[in-house]
Amino acid sequence: MKIPDYRDPKLAFNNALQSGVFHETLSDQKSYNFVGNWMYMHSDEREEKLIDHFKNIETRKYISVEVR
């Protein structure tokens, strides 16, 4: 079993924002992809790519974002 890696959450969130996965628009906070609705969980390597994993605070569903 692979042990997850933990990196600076600020870097993980910044990557997700720059990738367009999340947004910071305060007038649209109820949007599923509003950055404030997600928790950084961990990172791991898949096929030699670093992937950050986030969990939605309401639905508990995960989303994965490739680190660029």
Key terms for this structure?
three-stranded antiparallel beta sheet; 68 residues
User: Strand sequence of the main sheet, in spatial order?
Assistant: 1-2-3
Low-pLDDT segments, ≥5 res: none
Number of domains: 1
Question: Order of helices and strands, N to C?
Answer: HEEE
Alpha plus pi helix count: 1
Helix- and strand-based class?
A: alpha+beta
Shape: globular
Question: Would you summarize the structure shown here?
Answer:
The protein is an alpha+beta fold and 68 residues long. It contains 1 helix and 3 strands.
Task: Write structural notes for this entry.
With 68 residues, the chain is of the alpha+beta class. It has one domain (9-66). It contains one helix and three strands, in the order αβββ. The protein has one helix at 9-18; strands spanning 38-46, 49-56, 62-66. A three-stranded antiparallel β-sheet has the order 1-2-3, with helices on one face. 13% of the residues are buried.
